[in-house]
Structures are given as C-alpha cells and as structure tokens.
Write the structure tokens for this entry.
Amino acid sequence: MPLVTFWNYPKKLRSPEFVWNIKNDVGAVLELDLITNDVIVCFGGEQVVPQVVPVNTLIIIVELLFDKSERTLDVRKKLANSLALSTLKELCSITKNKWKVEVAVKKFNPEKDAFVVLE
C-alpha cells in the first residue's frame, strides 16, 4: 500500500485523471507487484517553505512501500524516474513554467518500523 505524496503541486492543477495516471505509473513497474488500487495518492501543501524550496519545485515522496527482495534499489530508482518523468510531462503540458521534480522512494520494513492496523 504505497503512499505517494506530492508537495508543492498547484491545487488548481489537481485532477482525478492525474491521480489515476500516477496510480498507473506505480502499477506499471511490474517488479513492485502492485495494482492501481493498492496505491494512495495525496497532496501536501501547495508551497513548502518558499525560502528553501523554489516555487516551481515539486517534491514527491513514496512511503509505505514494503521492503521485499524483488524491490531492489534499481526497481525503486525505476519507480522514481517514472514518477518524475510523467509528473514533469503533465506540469509542462498545462503550465508555461519551467519545473524541477524531486522524487524520494523510501522502503518500509514492518519489522524495523512501527506499523499497526486497527479495525
């Protein structure tokens, strides 16, 4: 159940189609063995510390990607690159601004990290 969080993505540009495309991008990395419904996409603040992060810099953080042997560093890099490229393409197609996209893909190990499910 990876959580893909977008920081600094303009609120007016968010759409269900964009969210669906991101879910498909994650699902397209076959080594992850995920389906689109496994992926949660959310948006953080529109402007993250403007003195530190330039206005046209988008940050994507992928968390809760369970650590499995087939999810190697190369696979995580493949996911990061796919998300960066598709997001940059989307942003450049609907804005005239030049964008920079940064992506971090963090592995999650429930044996080393706290994890609780309550119902």
